[in-house]
C-alpha cells in the first residue's frame, strides 16, 4: 500500500459505470474496490463504481461480483457516469451504449476490438467532437502497452511496418506443433483442454480476432482509419505438421502474424498500406520467434527508432484489467486536470492495398514427377513472372502406392509481388508434371 | 509523405530551441527540418526551429548542422522558445537553462539522464508549478518507449519489479564474451574499435550510466523520487571469461541489469524499494537473455499485467532522436489543445533499501582444499546464516605449481538476504581450507 489513505483530494469522486461482468470485468471491479486508495492517490480523485451492467443477474460467473452492484439497465447506468468501461464485446448494444456515454459527456474505456475495427472512425469522431476521451489499450494484445507508445511515443517518427503476434490461442497451437511435432488437430485439442482455445475456435484459428487487431494497429500506425474489410485474412487451420517440420529444418518458425506494412509509391505505382493476417515464416533468430505459448508481442519498425518490440500477456482477466485500468486512470487524470481529451491524428489518407499488391518473400512446397528438365521448367515459370528464386531444395521420395519416384521441392523466393507469385503458382499447378502444391507461405524478417 | 502540405493549421507556429549539437541534436534538427509538414499535421502546429545552441560554432561535427541556426547564446535562445530540447548532458549549464525555460513558460524535452537522476524531483516540481511539461523518454533506453508506458499505461497497476538492460556498451561486451569466449579486455577493445565504447569507458563499464537510468526507472515505477545516491552500483570490469563459461555451462547468461524491486514489509521489517545495478545471472530462456549486441530491453513485472518486455535500440543519433521527437509532439499537442501538462504522481513515500536488505539468489564460485569434510563445513556456514543452498557443483583440479588436488565449487542459493549472504561469504573466506573466492554473482529470473 504505497498511497496514504488520508490523502486529501481536491476533486469530487468520479462515477464509473462498468458494462460487462465477464472475466475481465470481474477483475476490473475487484481492483477498483481493492485498490481504491492507491488509485485515488494516483488519479487525484476517487473512483466510485456505480454499478456493473450484466445481461442476467443470476448467470453463473467465473469470478465473484458484488451482487448489490449488478444491474440489467446498462442505459440508465451509463447516463449517470463520468467514465464508462465497456467490456461487452460485439457490436450491439456496445456501440449504442458508448454513443450514449459520449452524448452524456462521459469518457469511455473499451476493450472491444470487433467494434473498434468496425466503427472506430465514427466513434472516435464523436468522442472528439464531444471533447471526451475514447481509449482502448485492452483491445489489442491485452496487457501490453502498445497503442499508447505507437500513438504518443512514436508520434515524431515514421512507422514503416508492424508485425504482431496478437492472438494467444494460435501462438499456443503453433508453438505446440513446433515443440512437440503434433499436428494441428492435436495441438488445438490440447489448447482447448487448457482453456487457451474456445469450444468453437473459429474466430481465433481463422485469424478473425487477429484481423480486428491488425485494423486497429494499422490505423494508429499510419494515421489513417483502416476497417476490417481492408484486412486480408488467412488462418492456421491448414498448417500441417509437415509444414512445421520443413520450416524447422530451414531454421524458420511459423507464426500467425498481424501485419501492417507501408509500401511507398514506386515506378508510377500507387503506394499504400497492406493490412493482413496470415501464417508467416520467420527466422528463428527473429525476436518474435522467441515468443512462446499464449504470449503476445508486437514488433514495430520505424524510420528513426529502428526495431522495437513489445512483449507480454495478450489475454486473461487480470492482465487485460491492467490495460483497462491504465486507460481509466489516464482518462480520469485528464478530467481532474481539466483540458480537452488527448486526440489521435488521422491526418494521413493512405490507400489500403489489396493483398495482390504486397511484396514479400515466399516459400512454396510442392511435389513433382521425377523427370529430367522439370526443375528448369519450373524455374522458367518463376522467371517469366519476374519472381526471382533464392533457394531450391529438392528431395526424392518413392510413392508407396505406384512405386514411382517423385521430387519434393521447397522454393524460397526473393521479395516479389504477391500477384506475380500467385500467377506463378497457378501456372505450376497446371503443369502436367506437378503432383501437388503442398504449401505456399509468406516469409518475413529475412 | 502522408501529410497534406496545405493542411490548414489553426495554431500559430511553435518556437523550438535546441540545446546541443551532438549526434542526437543533429538528427533532431534534421528531422525537424525534413519532416516539417508531417510533424505539423500530427501536432496541429508547425515547429519553427529558432536556433541550435552549441559551445563552439566551429567545432568539428559528426553530422552537419545548418550554420545559420547555430548560436553560442543558449540563454537568449531559451527565453524566446515555446519548447526547449535539452541535449547538453551533464549538470550545468543544462540545469540552469531548463530552469530558465520553465520560468519563461516553455515546456522542456530532455535526454539528460545524469541531471534527471540528480535533480529530477526539483525540476519536476518546478515544471508542475509553472504548468509546463517536462518529458525525458530519451534519457532511458534511447528509442524504446518505456517511461510513458510505465507512467500512463501501468498507472492502474502495481509494478513489483523492473529489470533493465539499459546500457548498450556493457551488453555488447558481455554478449561478445559469451559468444566468443573472449576476456573482458579483448571484448572492451573490440567495442571501442566499433564505436560502442568510448575511449574512457568508465561510466559505462562501472555501471554509472545504468545507475542514473535505474534511478529514473525506479522513480516512475514506484511513484517515489529515488536519486543516484539510492542506487547500489557494481560494474562488469571484474567479470572473467571463466565466470562467463561457468554461467554458460549452468544454462545461464551474465547481463548487467538495472534493477528496481519492491520488497513488501514482512515480519516487522520495513518494506521498501531496492534500486541497484550489478552483473546478474539469468536463465538462458529468460526473455532478457535473448537481448544481444548493443540492444536494450526493459522487463517489467506488475501485479496485474504480469510480465512485460520492451525492446529496442538504446542509443544512437536517430533512435534517440525518435524518442525526443515523440516527447516534442506530445508536449506540443498539449500546447495546441490547451489545458495543463500531464503530471506524474509521486504519491508514494517508499523507503529506498540498502543493498544489504535485498533478497535474491546467489551463485558463489570458490576453490577449496580437497579434504574430507570440507563440503560439510561450508554447508554449515550457509545454514548458520539461514542461507539455503539449491545446488552445489564440485570439480576436482590439480594445481600446476604444487601438484596438489583442490576442489572448485559453484554454489547456487535459494533466495536469501544479501546481508546473510555477505556474512556467509566472509566466514568462508576465513576458513583455512579456502583457497580463493572467485566470484559472487546474483541470480534473477529463476
Automatic annotation (TrEMBL), chains A, B:
NADP(+) binds at residues 19-26. Pathway: Amino-acid biosynthesis; L-methionine biosynthesis via de novo pathway; L-homoserine from L-aspartate: step 3/3; Amino-acid biosynthesis; L-threonine biosynthesis; L-threonine from L-aspartate: step 3/5. The active site is at 213 (proton donor). It is an enzyme of class 1 (oxidoreductase). L-homoserine binds at residue 198. Catalyzes the conversion of L-aspartate-beta-semialdehyde (L-Asa) to L-homoserine (L-Hse), the third step in the biosynthesis of threonine and methionine from aspartate. One of its GO terms (molecular function) is NADP binding. Keywords: Amino-acid biosynthesis, Methionine biosynthesis, NADP, Oxidoreductase, Sodium, Threonine biosynthesis. Belongs to the homoserine dehydrogenase family. NADPH binds at residue 113. This is Homoserine dehydrogenase. Its EC number is 1.1.1.3. Its cofactor is a metal cation. PANTHER family: HOMOSERINE DEHYDROGENASE (PTHR43331:SF1). It comes from Psychromicrobium silvestre. Pfam families: ACT (PF01842), Homoserine_dh (PF00742), NAD_binding_3 (PF03447). Residues 363-446 form the ACT domain. It catalyses: L-homoserine + NADP(+) = L-aspartate 4-semialdehyde + NADPH + H(+); L-homoserine + NAD(+) = L-aspartate 4-semialdehyde + NADH + H(+). GO terms for biological process: methionine biosynthetic process; threonine biosynthetic process.
Amino acid at each position: 500500500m504505497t498511497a496514504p489513505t488520508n490523502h486529501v483530494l481536491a476533486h469530487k469522486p468520479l462515477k464509473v459505470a462498468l458494462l460487462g461482468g465477464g472475466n475481465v470485468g470481474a477483475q476490473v471491479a475487484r481492483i477498483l474496490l481493492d485498490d481504491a486508495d492507491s488509485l485515488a492517490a494516483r488519479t487525484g480523485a476517487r473512483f466510485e463504481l456505480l454499478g456493473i451492467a450484466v445481461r442476467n443477474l443470476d448467470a453463473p460467473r467465473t469470478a465473484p461480483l458484488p451482487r448489490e452492484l449488478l444491474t440489467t439497465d446498462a442505459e440508465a447506468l451509463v447516463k449517470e457516469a463520468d467514465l464508462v468501461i465497456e467490456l461487452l464485446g460485439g457490436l450491439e448494444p456496445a456501440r449504442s451504449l458508448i454513443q450514449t456515454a459520449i452524448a452524456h459527456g462521459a469518457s469511455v474505456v473499451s476493450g472491444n476490438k470487433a467494434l473498434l475495427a468496425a466503427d472506430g472512425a465514427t466513434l472516435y469522431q464523436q468522442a472528439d467532437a464531444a471533447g471526451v476521451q475514447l481509449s482502448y489499450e485492452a483491445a489489442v494484445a491485452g496487457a501490453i502497452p502498445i497503442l499508447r507508445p505507437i500513438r504518443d511515443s512514436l508520434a515524431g517518427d515514421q512507422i514503416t511496418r508492424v508485425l504482431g503476434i496478437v492472438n494467444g490461442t494460435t501462438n499456443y497451437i503453433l508453438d505446440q506443433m513446433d515443440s512437440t511435432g503434433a499436428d494441428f488437430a492435436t495441438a488445438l485439442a490440447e489448447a482447448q483442454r487448457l482453456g487457451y482455445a474456445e469450444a468453437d475456435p473459429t474466430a481465433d484459428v481463422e485469424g478473425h480476432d487477429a484481423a480486428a487487431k491488425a485494423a486497429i494497429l494499422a490505423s494508429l500506425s499510419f494515421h489513417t482509419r483502416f476497417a476490417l474489410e481492408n484486412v486480408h485474412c488467412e488462418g492456421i487451420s491448414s498448417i500441417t505438421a509437415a509444414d512445421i517440420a520443413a520450416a524447422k529444418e530451414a531454421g524458420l518458425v511459423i507464426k500467425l502474424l498481424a501485419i501492417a506494412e507501408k509500401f511507398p509509391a514506386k515506378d508510377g505505382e500507387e503506394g499504400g498500406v497492406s493490412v493482413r493476417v496470415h501464417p508467416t515464416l520467420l527466422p528463428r533468430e527473429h525476436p518474435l520467434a522467441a515468443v512462446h505459448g499464449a504470449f503476445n508481442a508486437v514488433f514495430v519498425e520505424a524510420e528513426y527508432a529502428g526495431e522495437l518490440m513489445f512483449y507480454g500477456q495478450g489475454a486473461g482477466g487480470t492482465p487485460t484489467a491492467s490495460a483497462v485500468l491504465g486507460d481509466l486512470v489516464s482518462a480520469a487524470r485528464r478530467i481532474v486536470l481539466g483540458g480537452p481529451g488527448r486526440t489521435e491524428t488521422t491526418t494521413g489518407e493512405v490507400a489500403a492495398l489489396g493483398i495482390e499488391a504486397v511484396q514479400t518473400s515466399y516459400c512454396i512446397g510442392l511435389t513433382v514427377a521425377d523427370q529430367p528438365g522439370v526443375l528448369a521448367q519450373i524455374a522458367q515459370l518463376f522467371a517469366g513472372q519476374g519472381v526471382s528464386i533464392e533457394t531450391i531444395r529438392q528431395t526424392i521420395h518413392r510413392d508407396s502406392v505406384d512405386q514411382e519416384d517423385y521430387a519434393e521441392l521447397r522454393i524460397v523466393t526473393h521479395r516479389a509481388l504477391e500477384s506475380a507469385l500467385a500467377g506463378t503458382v497457378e501456372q505450376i499447378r497446371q503443369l502436367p508434371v506437378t503432383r501437388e502444391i503442398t504449401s505456399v507461405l509468406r516469409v518475413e524478417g529475412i
